[in-house]
User: Which sequence fits this backbone?
């Protein structure tokens, strides 16, 4: 769906998970950390729910890099709308910079003079009344339907038909 939405609307499509992992690979290479070691530390985080100080430091640095890239892309052209999808890692590392990045992007998109001009986040939900969320983390929006819309099956079918 993300591809179809991006093809139909003038947005800059951003696969957040891919951007995060690419930046993390780059940082690990710069620090001479084998990717397998990073995965091992992350697996311990998955098992325990407790993130190590080292991993937390790396993750914050990665979100800083991703954020800088997104803001740079948004500033490259006037009226850029960023379309974020596959953004589960924002939720996974919510307290280590994921939430902060999302809030900064939202705040900038709400200010007419700042880039991005707009921000779309694809957040699958079960019902129209359900608040947008990423893996259990609520995505805050103001003004009810002023900042969100529900893409129903009829819309998605029409979009998929092209």
Assistant:
């Amino acid at each position: 769906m993300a591809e179809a939405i991006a093809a139909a609307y003038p947005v800059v499509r951003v696969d957040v998970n891919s951007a995060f992992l690419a930046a993390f690979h780059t940082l690990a290479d710069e620090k001479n950390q084998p990717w397998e070691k990073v995965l091992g530390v992350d697996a311990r985080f998955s098992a325990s729910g407790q993130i190590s100080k080292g991993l937390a430091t790396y993750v914050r640095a990665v979100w800083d890099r991703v954020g800088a890239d997104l803001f740079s892309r948004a500033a490259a052209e006037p009226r850029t709308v960023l379309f974020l999808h596959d953004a589960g890692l924002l939720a996974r590392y919510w307290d280590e910079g994921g939430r902060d990045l999302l809030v900064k992007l939202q705040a900038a998109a709400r200010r007419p003079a700042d880039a991005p001009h707009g921000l779309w986040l694809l957040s699958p939900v079960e019902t129209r009344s359900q608040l947008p969320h990423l893996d259990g983390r609520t995505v805050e929006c103001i003004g009810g339907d002023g900042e969100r819309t529900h893409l129903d099956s009829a819309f998605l079918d029409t979009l998929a038909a092209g």
User: Anything to note?
Assistant: The beta strands are 12-15, 81-85, 118-121, 133-134, 137-138.
